[in-house]
Specification:
By secondary structure, the protein is α+β, with helices and mostly antiparallel strands. It contains six helices and six strands; from the N terminus they run E-E-H-H-H-H-E-E-E-E-H-H. The longest helix has 25 residues, at about 65-90. It starts with a strand and ends with a helix.
Length: about 190
Amino acid sequence: MKIVPIFVQENKREGLFSIHLDGEMEDEVTKCMEQWLLDPQYLYDFFSLHQDDLNSGYYGKTISIQQAIKYTREEAEALFYQLESLAVSGSKTGSDTLSKAFHPLYNLEFTHKELQLVKAKTPIRKKWLRMYAIKIGPNTFLVTGGAIKLVETMKESAHLIKEKQKLEDIKYYLKEEGILDQDDFEMYEI
């Protein structure tokens, strides 16, 4: 398992980082970018497999697979743009940080916790894309994965349960490595 810088300023240990799991071709952020932006076949296959969830009414009226692909690509562009601009501006005093994009994984969690589990989503239309991460500092987040969430809760879908388990596993890994906060992260060898 490796930690990879994604949107960070040179010589800084804050911004957006991603986990690169052993045995995987790429880190989790890159994987999401490729699946959501560059691979329409992946999206077609995903929405075909999850067509019942897509048209369950959770997002309103019936949505065609072609519309879902279009919405996903638009949302992905907005999400990655937002994350990049917040990561870069967040290192400047008085600017918005990545904390503006990432919110607690559990909607009823209002206080900051050590290695808090968080999610990012865009403020646009459907909002079904999720980037899951662990908050290390106000402008330091480690992405553990991402998903298209077509159901109300994570426990309703196998691929979302898998993402939640990755969050828990990587949080455990960080604790085992002695990374509990920003200071620890700055000392960690990447």
